[in-house]
Amino acid sequence: MKGIEVKNISRSFKDTRALHQINLTFEEGKIYGLLGRNGAGKSTLLNIISNRKYPDEGYVTVDGVPSVENDDALRKIFLINEKNLYPESMKVKDAFKISKDFYPSFDEAYALKLSEMFELNIKKKIKSLSTGYQSIFRNILALSVNVPYVFFDEPVLGLDAYHRDLFYKILIEKYSEEPFTAVISTHLIEEVANVIEEVIIIKKGEILKNESRDNLLANSYTVSGTISQVDSYLSSLPKYTEVLGADVIGGLKSAYILGKSDKHLPEGLEKSPMDLQKLFIHLTSI
């Protein structure tokens, strides 16, 4: 079976439960958003998938093969996060050269092309790069490695607006030309909302939502009007709907609802789509 399967993964650190019974499948050729607040367990999950940490229970398979201590399986995965796995005294250009030793499909020419686009000085030592250019360096590695599964843990950390936009554009171009599985773990949800296809929301080590972005947004909406009108509407909703929260300004109220809107709105009320960031905020705050 193609894809990465995460089966019943749990992990604790002393008295802190980081992950609890996580079951996920990352399919071939999709862009996932792994979304969660700080401390939700995103980085722990990615480190377990890439074999940098071990679970207390459960296991991970890559294309149907267990990944633990399996070099062939792990060569199909590339994870970038805030940690630099190259010697800090090494120059960027030399890091590109040795990457091919570990990942034979690494495209050094493409990495050099991206370096020009991002204005990354390849003659600099890795330790001398700013926070933003450390992120750019790691992103270029991830975009050039050409493996089936690439995990980006906070890929735009320290990047300015121009470089963030450039990263997303190049990622989409790369994906369009040579589809691969990309998983973006980030807290900048508004920026990735139009990039990701699948949404995984994690809260306190457990999965809240795991479905397509379009389906998730199609089953959520906002209703606005006077307080009395909105309250009356909410009281008439069927049990399968869930009111995630509400905002009140003066005599007006906006309610955020999870579930399909199959009721005709009374006159005076207004329905609007809920964006992914607003939905995430309310799902993770309850």
UniProtKB/TrEMBL annotation:
Keywords: ATP-binding, Nucleotide-binding
Any one GO molecular function term: ATP binding
Domain ABC transporter: 4-229
PROSITE patterns, sorted: ABC_TRANSPORTER_2
Keyword set includes Nucleotide-binding: yes
InterPro entries, per the entry: AAA+_ATPase, ABC_transporter-like_ATP-bd, P-loop_NTPase
Keyword Cytoplasm: no
Name listed for the protein in its UniProt record: ABC transporter ATP-binding protein
Organism: Claveliimonas bilis
